[in-house]
Each structure stands twice: as C-alpha cells, then as structure tokens.
Amino acid sequence: MEMNCASSENDSKAFNLSEKNETQKSDDDNEPSECKIQKTDIPDDKETLKNGQGVQECIEIKVIFNKKKYDVQIPPDATVATLKKQLQGLLGVPDSMQKLMFKGLLHDNQTLSSAGVVKGTKIMLVGSTLNDVLAVSSVSKQDVAEMEKASSTKEPLCKQKVHKKVLDKGIPEDAMPGIKNIKEPLPPAPLSGMLNKQGGKVRLTFKLEADQLWLSTKERTEKLPMSSIKNVVSESIEGHEEYHILGLQLGPTEASRYWIYWVPAQYVDAIKDAVLGKWQYF
Fold first, then answer.
1. What is the pLDDT of residue 209?
2. Same domain, yes or no, for 82 and 139?
3. Hey, what's the torsion of the CAs at 13, 17, 22, 27, to 10 degrees?
4. 97: exposed, middle or buried (C-beta count within 10 Å: 0-12, 13-18, 19+)?
5. How far is CA 103 from CA 75, 124, 200, in A?
6. Alpha-carbon dihedral of residues 131, 132, 134, 138, nearest 10 degrees?
7. In this predicted model, what pLDDT tens digit does every residue of 127-157 receive, in sequence order?
8. How far is C-alpha 282 from the chain's CA centre?
9. Residue 35 has what DSSP assignment?
10. Range of the domain at 197
11. 172: domain CATH number?
12. What's the rounded Cα separation, in Å, for the pair 224 and 228?
C-alpha cells in the first residue's frame, strides 16, 4: 500500500509538472513578437501639459498699431511688461517706448487677466520705432553725401553745409546760457532752447531712474532708452565756443544721427556720461 501511495504521489507530481510545461509552452506560442505589438499613440507633451499639468493655454488678442491689426498669442496670466517685450520683437517698438491702452492705460506690473483682457480683446499700442525718431530728423541723400565728403576732409561740423543751414539762423532767443571750458552736472530742469536739423525747438529731459532720455519737439515726445543710443558726438561751434553741435547715434551710420544745435558747452560731458552709462556726475 505504501508503494502504491508513493507511486500515486509521484505520478501526480509528474502530471502536474507536465501540465505546467504544456501551459508554459502554450503561453509561449501565443506570446506576440515585438513587431506585432500595436504601438500606442503617446499624447504630445504640450497637449499633456495644457490639459492639466500646470501650463496655461494661450489666448489670442488683437493689437492695433498704426491702423493695422496684429494677432498675438500670450498666456492670460502674463504681465503687461511681458506683452511689451513680445511686441518689441514683433513690431520693432522698444518696450520702454510703448503705451498699451485698454479701458485706459495698462501698467507694466498688471497681468492681462487682472486688466480684463480675454480672448479676442483689442489693445491699442501707442509708440514709435527708432526709425520714426530718425524720420523727425530725416537726412536726404545729398546731405549724406555732403557729410561723407566733409568727414573724409575732416571739415569741422559747423563748417559743413548740412549744419550751416541751421547755424546761420543764429542763437535761438530762448537758448540757455552757455559757458566754455567749464564742466557742470546736468541741471534738475530739462535742457531747452536748442534746435534740431529742421530748425525746430528741441528739449532734452533725462529720466535717470528709468534709464531714458526724453527727446521733445513741438509735435511729440520720444522716450529713448539710453541703451538705444550707441554714441554721442559733439563739437564746439566756431565763433560761439560756449555752444556745441551734438549728435545722438541711433543707428550704425552717420545718417542715423539725431543732430541738436546750440547745446550749452558746460553740459556736454554730463550728457555723454549720462547716456553712455557713466554716473559720476550724479
């Protein structure tokens, strides 16, 4: 009886082992090969983020500038300052020279959503490109040729025909007093009583806390970032050395200089230092 029991137990183990092997074999036969696996489409990372992992979807707004409409996409929680930087790249208007209007003036630290900006909102942009600023002091091809000729012969600025047209009108009646051979810090009030190349009145206001130079004419005021002015050149006016001709370099060539006449000599160095980043006068 014991032998039969043992045999029966061994047979049972053998049967179970055989059954296991058959089952394993059957599973192996049914295992799909790698090339047969159906690939599952993985959702795009951006879509995944948009649909619930912290990234807010952009809204499309319309920005109106110079009677043209521009479609701009931006997150609603972005600040007005961020929008200005985006518009600077799109339209070429420096962010510091932009005013954005929607139900009044938008302030840099506001978010678009807090200002009530939603999808489809129209925002008005008021501002000027550097090319617009240069257009106020436009230079003809003849003027450029004359300046290049004078440059090659080292002719003083005050002797060049393009500048004599303004200088020959004489010192403006409201010119600030000039003092030669003296260096003074900029006065607290704007510098006024000067002329541009068209003979129009020019006033310079230095907003050092904003790193801006406000260039004002009768028609408008341009708020120039100091960093947009590449250089400042000047020369004294022969016979009136207490005054200078001063050029603000707004672009790569001489044609992109904004010329200002009858600048009091005592402030010229302070102007250069303020614009080019030397602050020892203040």
1. 86
2. no
3. 130
4. buried
5. 20, 10, 35
6. 110
7. 766 666 655 555 555 555 555 555 555 688 8
8. 27
9. G
10. 133-276
11. 2.30.29.30
12. 7
CATH of the domain at 84: 3.10.20.90
| 137 and 250 inside one domain | yes
Whether 40 maps to a domain, the answer reads: no
Phi/psi at 29 (5° precision): -65, -35
Residue 38 has pLDDT above 60, yes or no: no
In terms of domains, do 177 and 120 share one?
no
Q: How far apart, in whole angstroms, are the C-alpha atoms of residue 28 and residue 43?
A: 32
| Residues in the chain, total | 282
| Residue 261 and residue 195 in contact, taking contact as beta carbons nearer than 8 Å | yes
Residues 184 and 145 in one domain: yes
pLDDT digits (tens, 9 = 90+) for 188-242: 999 999 999 989 999 999 998 888 899 999 888 888 888 888 899 999 999 999 9
Model confidence over 252-261: pLDDT tens digits? 777 788 999 9
pLDDT number for residue 35: 38
Retrieve residue 133's tokens: 């600023």
> Given 76, 100, 127, which residue is the final one in a domain?
127
Number of folded domains that form the chain: 2
Q: Which of 251, 258, 253, 255 is nearest to 142 (CA)?
A: 255
User: Cα(260)–Cα(212) distance, rounded to whole angstroms?
Assistant: 17
| Domain co-membership, 197 together with 269 | yes
